[in-house]
Structure of TPR-like protein:
Amino acid sequence: MTSRLAERPETPPNPSIVIPFSRDTDFVERAILDQIHQKCAVLGSRTALVGLGGVGKSQLAIEYAYRTRDRSPETWVFWAHASNAARFEQSFRDIANCVKISGRQNPTANIFQLVHDWLCDEKKGKWALILDNVDDAGFLVEARRTGQDGQTSGIESGNPRSLVSYFPQCPHGSILITTRSEDEALNLVEQRDIITIGPMSSEDALTLFENKLGGVDDGSNDGDVGAELLVALEFMPLAIVQAAAYILRRRPRFSVRKYLQGFRESDRKRASLLDYNSKQLRRDREAKNSIIVTWQISFDHVRKIRPSAADLLSLISFFDRQGIPDALLQDRSEQINSRQDQRESTASSCVDDNTGYIDDEEGSASQSSMSDGFEEDVSVLRNYSFISVNTNGTTFEMHGLVQLAMKKWLEAHGQIERWKRQFIKNLDAELPTGEYENWEKCRALFPHAQSAAAQRPKEQDSLLDWASILYNAAWYALRMGKGVETENMAVHVMKVRKKILGDEHSDTLNGMEMVGLAHSLNGQWDDAEKLEVQVMETRKTKLGVDHPDTLTSMANLASTYRNQGRWDDAEKLFVQVMETRKTKLGVDHPSTLTSMANLASTYRNQGRWDDAEKLEVQVMETSKTKLGVDHPSTLTSMANLASTYRNQGRWDDAEKLEVQVMETSKTKLGVDHPSTLTSMANLASTYRNQGRWDDAEKLEVQVMETRKTKLGVDHPSTLTSMANLASTYRNQGRWDNAEKLEVQVMETSKTKLGVDHPSTLTSMANLASTYRNQGRWDDAEKLEVQVMETSKTKLGVDHPSTLTSMANLASTYRNQGRWDDAEKLEVQVMETSKTKLGVDHPSTLTSMANLASTLWNQGRWDDAEKLEVQVIETSKTKLGVDHPDTLTSMANLASTLWNQGRWDDAEKLEVQVMETSKTKLGVDHPDTLTSMANLASTLWNQGRWDDAEKLDVQVMGTRMTKLGVDHPSTLTSMANLASTYRNQGRWDDAEKLEVQVMETSKTKLGVDHPSTLTSMANLASTYRNQGRWDDAEKLFVQVMETSKTKLGVDHPDTLTSMANLASTYRNQGRWDDAEKLFVQVMETRKTKLGVDHPDTLTSMANLASTYRNQGRWDDAEKLEVQVMETSKTKLGVDHPSTLTSMANLASTYRNQGRWDDAEKLEVQVIETSKTKLGVDHPDTLTSMNNLAFTWKGSGKEIEAVRLMEECVQLQKRILGVNHPDSISSCTALDTWKAEQEDVALLI
């Protein structure tokens, strides 16, 4: 394959007229033409000419076009055939070529978008667009048709955006439409913009007749005879033109009077044509008797004077009536054998004038004679107004009524099968296979193939040719991603070949294989499997197990197994194919290498990445040696290996290969080749994994736009590229942009592929994921339930994609705080994954991690820890110590340890994750930054706020640079730093950051987004620390009310917001208000989470604190004892939360004057804190402060002062002199010392 040269810049042409017809010099001025000009002169107008077939609509439009050009040379005038979508597309291509739109040379360019954009550009100048023969506007206004009768054009089903949307509504352009149907016109224009075209006036009709006769008077053309004839012709322009052409060609031996006599005779007899199925012939009143009779008179004469021309018209009538290439018409070899049959079967005699369709003595002379004869036949048909030649001189078209009349005449005279046979033979000889290099020719011939699909022949030999046409057309449709068309055509092929050739014939099996491929394209894998098994077994019996075709069928079946998630079955077949090909063809044969690549792909699905890598390296190296470094198959092998590297987390290795593949593909195949675009998409995927989202976006936008132009907006590959770009938008936090793309992909997939197609289900899952990020959990849930249920029905309960859908729904349940529902699903996914995929499969490990996360939310940290340890150990063995998934599992375990208060253990893991991430992924990779933020959180819990601050600042700064100031992850890092400032008592610094986070979140995410509500709660918390309780209250109320509406009254985040507001009420001394809220929170959590859930225990402690403020110490004590005992059992004696509960109870004992009880607890808290948290941990210092106050209250003045002095020294060193806790302790110490001095003075 040679590389494709880039398009050279072209000089923009001057405005011109693009119309496939020459101007009619005999055109008769009609009054209605002025009305057309007036309507179309309105800026941005759309006008429709409506009238019967043959009434002269197109001729009026042609004349309007040329007059517009005459009046305004700076105006572009364009003509588009609009009888069907394929012809419409070709007309747009002609327009693009005329105006030299860049990119139009692409074999399957989205020409509609290119022309639309050009027309919209006011700088290009004024334009008028004429849409001729819009007799079925459905393909223009509908997003898609199913093509039930085989007549659907590729574009009709290949563009879910309605074609009418490509008609610009702009002030510098106008559109004129011709149609036989007012109903069709109303699909495109308003009622007021319809101009009804009737028959000509008698004066205009006479003028036209005389013009066409050339003004020659034969003596019989008196006014009465001419007028009588025009009345008989019903003043229809097409009938008048045909009659005049007939008379003119037969002069001087024929006159108007003789024609009128013949017309009346023919009209009385109705001939065979009008008698035959007249209702169908004149359906919707489209064909007047006058037109049919004039056609028959002319046709009968042509048959007598030049039978070969009549033969040519017979052949033409079977093609799509527009864009008929002359190459399809010049082979009429059937005529040699059947001409005598024709003479015997028709009533009229035929004169054989030897026009060149029989063999001559010399081949060149014969060829020349045939060419001359063909041109003469064309000339005759043009002279009698049966056909017209497009301005390119190589394609023909015929009026729809002429085509209809010709077909009915053939049917009435028993000639239909003969010419159908010739049509099929000619088309079969020209239509190539659907491979990439044939796409341009296939596109031009596809409308004729669709016409053939609706014209099944009766004879066996012709049926096989018909099947051959449909097979190649289905092949092309398959490559275009048109599943419906592919399946319809392929099923016809399969049935015909089975009936004629038998079930075991190789052509029959090829047909069945094509149907199977169509089923796969449509996601109908069970149907595909049935056919593929049948093909495989037949080939084994017929050809042998080791025949290349048999091996191909086995590989196809294995590929279907892969799609069904039956990877073990796929592996067995692929291994068998590979081993047989090695023996049969050799290790380095291209087919052997393909089978090795297929097996490696299955290994990837099984998570056996090392096995995949070994095979792929072997394939790549052999391909380089055998085929060359730049061979397309070599490039594919490199891309496959890069994909495995991606799965292994070896993103730098993947990137190197993918860059090499992409650059070579651009040079070797061209920038817009499908394989080049795939290589660019692969590289973008690696950039995404590396956190290089801007680089990924640039590539993905380029891939998406090129695929839209190259393959069409609704091609599966285009939809994939749109989904990839949406995924990048999600990573960038651009959720609205992601949503727009994903909705478009989902709707197009539903229309193009069907609601239950696997790709449609994936698009729905992607959109649900974006909804989750937007906090729209109910919307996400609805989609995910639909995806899960459909997947169960479509794919099976244990299909990997079904399991993924269940895991996604469980994730949404987690966000909704429905942890029991999430747990049930996740257990089911985990157990099924273990059975289906294996205990150590990456997807199984992910399911275990998901379940651990739910257990973690339920406060079941021991259960979560067990799972997470298992995931870590298996990941280390399976994936490697430094694999990104292994690092994630270590971070998950650290989080659990962190909740257990095992901060030292958490710190060790987080440091390891952070350092490995820096080495493996880079200092500024998003995952590295997350690991740094996690470590900062742990340091924060350890009271090491300065260390935490340094990390938080580093993370925030890098995210601002890397992701942008308003990225959700950046906002999170700012909130984390603000939280550290709060703990340091730097409330003003915290406030500044939190206000910025809140305002940005409102703008970026929306006022009611969960992350926005969190930012508001954080700021309110700072206000509380500053003693700005009214400001805090306003925010907390807003957060609470929004949470109730957005999340539900019993959502965990709503309950937290209620607790925060209650805490503020406590600070304001509004203890009754606080109590009501705390009771509500506590009761709801007991019901929702369980009595021993950590959050429930926190709410009980909060209520007890309020009881203390109310002096209800007994009530406080009961609750606090319950919290403490449950915490000891649930969390452990030395858990920080347990120590807090003990300190709370001690505080109540202090208030009750039970100094000894308080002291015992506080001593225990201090000792355990020193051991658990460290001597200088802030919580340890707090416990020392508490004990000092207890000693002071119990009269142990000296011990209290000494302990407080020690506490103050530590607080100044650890927290800083200006920290609120340091200041508070200093004030207490000074007071106590002053009291001691006063006592000493008194003594």
